[in-house]
Each structure stands twice: as C-alpha cells, then as structure tokens.
Amino acid sequence: MTESMTEGPGTVAGQPAAEAPLLRVRDLRKAFVHGGKQLHVLRGVDFVIRRGEMAAIVGASGAGKSTLLHIIGTLDAPTAGSVEFDGRDVSRMDGRSLALFRNRTIGFVFQFHHLLPEFNALENVMLPAIIARRPRDEARSRADRLLREVGLGERTTHRPSELSGGEQQRVAIARALVMEPRLLLADEPTGNIDSQTASGIHELFFSLNRQHGTTMIVVTHDERLASKLPRRLEIRDGQIVRDTGAPPPLVEPSVAPEPPPPVPAAGD
C-alpha cells in the first residue's frame, strides 16, 4: 500500500466520521495461466476513490492498467482481494446482480467507441436506458440533453459513419452518462484521435465532472490529460508505486468503548 493511502486513527467517540469512500480497492490481485505458468498481472493493489474525484491511472504498456480498470468495472473478476462500492463488495456479486450494477452505476468509455453503425447518435446514446427498461420518452430526453451537453445537438440524427472520430467519441461519452452513473471509467479515451480533438475531450471530461459531480477514473498514456487530472496513480509491475494528489487519508469510524460497570455503593 502506498504511503498516501495509509489509514488514519479512529475517530474520537461522539465526533462524526469522515464520509466513506465511493470506491475502495483492497489487496487486489490478478493472475492468468499462460503456457502452463502463472502470470501475475496485479500484485496487491490498494487505494480509495472519493465521490467526485478525477483520477488518472498511468504506467507502461503491460503494467496492469486496463486489467485493473476492468476489474473495478466488474468486467473481470480478481484472483484475490476485493472491490468495494459504497462499502459493498461487488467482486462477490453473482452474474445477474453484476449486470444490473454495471448498467445502473458505472459508465464506460473505451479507446474505440463501439457505436452501433445502423443506429444514429441519439439511438446509440439511448441504448443503455432502453436495456434498463426505462420509458422510451425518458431515454430519448436524456440522450438528447447529453448530446447537447457534449456539443452534438445538431448531429443527433447522424450515423457513426457520418461523424468524425472526435464526434464519435463524444457520442460514446454521452452514452456512458445516460444512466447517470456514479462512476465513469475511461480506458485510453483519446488514444485513437488527433491531439487537437483530444484537447476538446479533456475539457469535456472536466465540464461533465463540474456539471454532474461524476467520479472519473481514466487509464491513459496521454501525458497532457494525466497532468491535468487532480490525482495520478502510477502502476508498475502490477503495483501502485506512486499516488500523487490524493486527498488526506480516510479516518475510519471507531466503536465507542462500553462504559465501565457502576461501582457498588458502600454497604451493597
């Protein structure tokens, strides 16, 4: 565990505890069997993310960044350790519960937008809400509002092939937010677009964080984006080796001690 994540002492009885973190990763480990040998990708990762935080995860290719993000997003399961969301260990949920949790709580943005080519921008953004069986009018209203927020209010009826790479990524970001997730996970979101377009995506992330308070974790090789984010976690050989910009350590609530039994009065 890195020094900045060391837990503080318990609270004094009677004083309010600090707000619990949105996300807590505890001793997370992931190993794969390759060629008859175990390949250890994550080796005891620990950190917490507060509500509304924006954090970058950086490191060399093969360091374990994307694997970590996929486990946080419940797209993969850890070999050991836990991922806690609001104090609940989501790494132990069954498949159906995980699918519902992902749809309602986490938004994903990937390097490749994965938009459905036969649908227009509005329909692509509506999809997660339709899957969640939200009323179609509600899904349409949310999708239209988000497309306007990301600067595509005039492109709602365009199909992906009629949009630029940056516009396609903006549609993907709107789609990730249509269910109003509490956590947005982005894996190399600017890795497939030019630097000028990438700068617009950077600013869009900050704007959405300000407007919605969405917590964001971004895996990136883009040093310009990583340097702008308030927090930076560097991963090397499957471990967090540096955590800069982290808030003060959490102060865990403590249980007040039982009062001592009353002293019997003289003569009792």
Give an account of the 3D structure.
- There is one protein chain.
- With 268 residues, this protein is of the alpha/beta class.
- It has a domain at 21-113 and 182-244: Rossmann fold (3-Layer(aba) Sandwich).
- Helix content is 30%, strand content 24%.
- The strands form two sheets. Strands 6-7-8-3-9-10 form a six-stranded mixed beta sheet. Strands 2-1-4-5 form a four-stranded antiparallel beta sheet, with helices on one face.
- β9 (231-236) and β10 (239-244) form a beta hairpin.
- α3 (121-131) crosses α4, α4 crosses α5 (165-177) and α5 (165-177) packs parallel to α6.
- The longest helix has 18 residues, at 195-212.
Quick structural overview:
The protein is built from 7 helices and 10 strands. With 268 residues, it is of the alpha/beta class.
CATH architecture term of the domain at 21-113 and 182-244: 3-Layer(aba) Sandwich
User: For this structure, what is the CATH class of the domain at 21-113 and 182-244?
Assistant: Alpha Beta
Order of helices and strands: EEEHEEHEHHHEHEHEE
For the termini, the CA-CA separation is 55 Å
The percentage helix is: 25-40%
CATH superfamily heading of the domain at 21-113 and 182-244: P-loop containing nucleotide triphosphate hydrolases
CATH topology of the domain at 21-113 and 182-244: Rossmann fold
Number of beta-strand segments: 10
Form type: globular
- What integer is the average pLDDT? 84
Structural class call reads: alpha/beta
Biggest sheet strand line-up: 6-7-8-3-9-10
- What is the makeup of the main sheet? 6 strands, mixed
The proportion of strand residues reads 15-25%
